[in-house]
Design goal:
mainly alpha; 6 helices; transmembrane; Four Helix Bundle (Hemerythrin (Met), subunit A); transmembrane helix
Length: about 190
């Protein structure tokens, strides 16, 4: 909870926050509806060849998972190794984490936080709406997330505002939420047909 006397932490009233969330929900619903109506197959139907429809998205998701493992997960371990952290016991670790290790850990954690929505959204969109569109959107997401990771890892000595991560994360939110909403709308359209 923030202290109302503390002028360093801006507070957003709950009502304003809810209004902003509703604006985003409305926007993602409209984008999802556009995706469903413009590119979706006949509501209530599955692709004739499920493997062929899902294969491009599977390739993209597998590519991201491999890059996540090698670049992000192993990257944290290698940074810890370079800093000698792997040779220390827990009680001997410094109170403040090394900046390179911290930045790599933040990349790893944030990628992990984004994965459920990305993976579920990609496969639902590919299965229920359109496999080609889902694979293209997911490929754009993967490229943006790799750019995000690369930028964040090299941000040593910079303030968060200087790094410029929003140019990668905001489009990724739009992609994932649009795919999820498109799948949900397509499911409703199929159910009520």
């Amino acid at each position: 909870m923030t202290d109302p006397k503390d002028k360093t932490t801006p507070t957003v009233p709950l009502e304003k926050e809810l209004q902003e969330i509703m604006k985003l929900v409305t926007m993602f619903t409209l984008l999802g509806a556009a995706l469903s109506f413009l590119f979706g197959r006949a509501p209530g139907t599955l692709p004739d060849d499920i493997i062929k429809e899902l294969a491009p998205s599977i390739v993209v998701v597998c590519g991201f998972l491999i890059s996540y493992e090698f670049c992000d997960v192993m990257g944290v371990g290698m940074a810890k190794g370079r800093k000698g952290i792997l040779e220390q016991s827990y009680k001997d670790l410094p109170a403040k984490e090394d900046e390179e290790v911290y930045l790599r850990q933040r990349v790893l954690t944030n990628q992990l936080e984004q994965m459920p929505l990305f993976i579920v959204g990609t496969f639902l969109c590919a299965l229920l709406v359109n496999g080609k569109v889902a694979s293209i959107l997911s490929l754009v997401w993967v490229v943006l997330r790799r750019m995000y990771a690369s930028t964040y890892k090299r941000a040593g000595g910079k303030k968060l505002k200087q790094i410029g991560l929003a140019k990668f994360t905001v489009p990724c939110y739009f992609i994932c939420n649009t795919m999820v909403m498109a799948a949900g709308i397509q499911a409703v359209r199929g159910y009520v047909r």
